[in-house]
């Protein structure tokens, strides 16, 4: 979709997919992917050389979008480096670098010298790098709960702010393409050989993408004109390692918890960015949940037809889509759903719609029944 919010919005408005035939994996794999352009040519500044890897390069590109570094610096000056928390979500962190190290073992079975950097062979690699890059000294947390990871970071940050442990938080998520993910999902028979088609009657699997995104959370009085995180819901039904609960138990618990915490009735929700991966079971369960919870006036769509499934980064990526809907009154169409599944009710927006959006939800439903839902609203909204 490009770099930054303007590029994202232009892609949504033009209903243009960012998916391409797989040109990433080391062995042939017939599928489509969402690959970030320019990542191979990107480089971390010299002082961050110990963290050099694809995932952290993508994080660095994300941090340098839309003046974000300057906003964090202003918050650091206002609150102090130790009063800003950092909460990042990722499902694989820098495992791509560890894959490379194992491919290049020396005769004694050791990592090659240039890959003997412990900082990148750990799940906390992303958070450690971002903390160093932003100069933050407050609580630092990596959330790795599969596809809900970078949605759950909003909940963790809001709790710490409410408890007075911090005054602001940087939240975000980054996941990059790697063979472990591509071939792992393919082994589960979840990967389509075509561009993914969320909620389409003939859908047959996901497309995998990569993304980075970050947001700055502060108390309302520090940014009265900014959109608001009204609430969140989290649940884990542990129904199955990779298949959602057939009645959407955990997803429903997370959704209703978000509405309750935000003080919202379902009818007040203008738009829902759905998890909508284009897998058979996920879309079936989520469509039923929407149909039995929301009126036809609530609009709903998946945007994975634009990006593919960005795994641990999907929460932050799709939160930004929900916030774009609020700011610009854009309900993005459900790209790829050319033959709508009859299970989808009247709430589904199959093409772009322009209308005021005061309240938007973002669903992130992960493996193991680990689910999260975020509720956002325009500045000044009162439930």
Kindly describe this structure.
The chain is of the alpha/beta class and 383 residues long. The chain has a single domain (5-377), classed as Peroxisomal Thiolase, Chain A, domain 1 (3-Layer(aba) Sandwich). 31% of the residues lie in helices and 18% in strands. It contains eleven helices and 14 strands. It has helices at residues 5-13, 54-63, 68-79, 95-103, 125-134, 149-162, 179-187, 249-262, 280-293, 304-307, 314-328; strands at 20-21, 32-34, 84-89, 140-143, 168-175, 208-209, 211-218, 228-236, 271-274, 299-302, 330-331, 353-354, 359-366, 370-377. A five-stranded mixed beta sheet has the order 8-14-13-9-10, sandwiched between helices. The protein has a four-stranded mixed beta sheet with strand order 4-3-5-7, with helices on both faces. α2 (54-63) packs parallel to α5. The longest helix has 15 residues, at 314-328. The mean pLDDT is 95. GO terms for molecular function: 3-oxoacyl-[acyl-carrier-protein] synthase activity. It comes from Rhodanobacter fulvus Jip2. InterPro entries: Beta-ketoacyl_synthase, Ketoacyl_synth_AS, Ketoacyl_synth_C, Ketoacyl_synth_N, PKS_Beta-ketoAc_synthase_dom, Thiolase-like.
| Head-to-tail CA distance between termini | 33 Å
Task: Summarize the amount of helix as a percent range.
Answer: 25-40%
CATH superfamily: Thiolase/Chalcone synthase
Low-confidence stretches: none
Please count the beta strands (DSSP E, at least 2 residues each).
14
Rounded average pLDDT: 95
- Give the spatial strand order of the biggest sheet: 8-14-13-9-10
CATH class: Alpha Beta
- Shape, per Cα inertia axes: globular
- If classified by CATH, what would the architecture be? 3-Layer(aba) Sandwich
CATH fold name, please? Peroxisomal Thiolase, Chain A, domain 1
What kind of sheet is the major sheet? 5 strands, mixed
- Helix tally equals 11
Number of domains: 1
Radius of gyration from CA coordinates: 20 Å
**Helix/strand order, N-terminal first:** HEEHHEHHEHEHEEEHEHEHHEEEE
| Beta-strand content estimate | 15-25%
Given the helix and strand composition, which structural class is it? alpha/beta
Protein name: 3-oxoacyl-(Acyl carrier protein) synthase I
Organism: Rhodanobacter fulvus Jip2
GO cellular component, one term: cytosol
GO molecular function: 3-oxoacyl-[acyl-carrier-protein] synthase activity
């Amino acid at each position: 979709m490009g770099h930054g919010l303007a590029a994202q919005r232009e892609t949504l408005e033009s209903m243009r997919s960012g998916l391409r035939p797989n040109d990433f994996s080391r062995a042939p794999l017939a599928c489509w992917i969402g690959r970030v352009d320019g990542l191979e040519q990107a480089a971390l500044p010299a002082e961050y050389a110990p963290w050099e890897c694809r995932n952290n390069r993508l994080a660095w590109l994300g941090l340098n979008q839309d003046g974000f570094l300057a906003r964090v610096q202003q918050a650091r000056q206002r609150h102090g480096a130790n009063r800003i928390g950092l909460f990042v979500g990722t499902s694989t962190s820098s495992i791509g670098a560890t894959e490379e190290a194992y491919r290049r073992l020396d005769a004694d079975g050791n990592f090659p010298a240039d890959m003997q950097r412990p900082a990148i062979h750990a799940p906390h690699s992303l958070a450690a790098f971002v903390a160093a890059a932003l100069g933050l000294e407050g609580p630092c947390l990596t959330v790795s709960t599969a596809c809900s990871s970078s949605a759950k970071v909003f909940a963790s940050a809001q709790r710490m702010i409410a408890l007075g442990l911090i005054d602001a938080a940087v939240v975000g998520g980054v996941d990059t393409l790697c063979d472990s993910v591509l071939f792992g999902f393919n082994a589960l028979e979840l990967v389509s050989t075509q561009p993914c088609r969320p909620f389409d009657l003939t859908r047959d699997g996901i497309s995998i993408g990569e993304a980075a995104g970050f947001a700055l959370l502060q108390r309302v009085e520090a940014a009265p004109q900014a959109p608001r995180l009204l609430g969140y819901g989290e649940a884990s039904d542990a129904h199955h390692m990779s298949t959602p609960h057939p009645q959407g138990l955990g997803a429903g618990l997370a959704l209703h918890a978000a509405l309750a915490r935000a003080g919202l009735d379902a009818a007040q929700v203008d738009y829902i960015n759905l998890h909508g991966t284009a897998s058979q079971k996920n879309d079936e369960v989520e469509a039923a949940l929407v149909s039995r919870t929301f009126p036809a006036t609530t609009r709903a769509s998946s945007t994975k037809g634009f990006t593919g499934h960005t795994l641990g980064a999907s929460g932050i990526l799709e939160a930004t889509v929900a916030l774009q809907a609020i700011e610009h009154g854009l309900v993005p169409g459900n790209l790829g759903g050319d033959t709508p599944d009859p299970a989808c009710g009247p709430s589904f927006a199959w093409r772009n719609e322009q209308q005021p959006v005061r309240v938007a939800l973002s669903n992130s439903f992960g493996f193991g029944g680990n689910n999260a839902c975020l509720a956002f609203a325009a500045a000044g909204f009162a439930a």
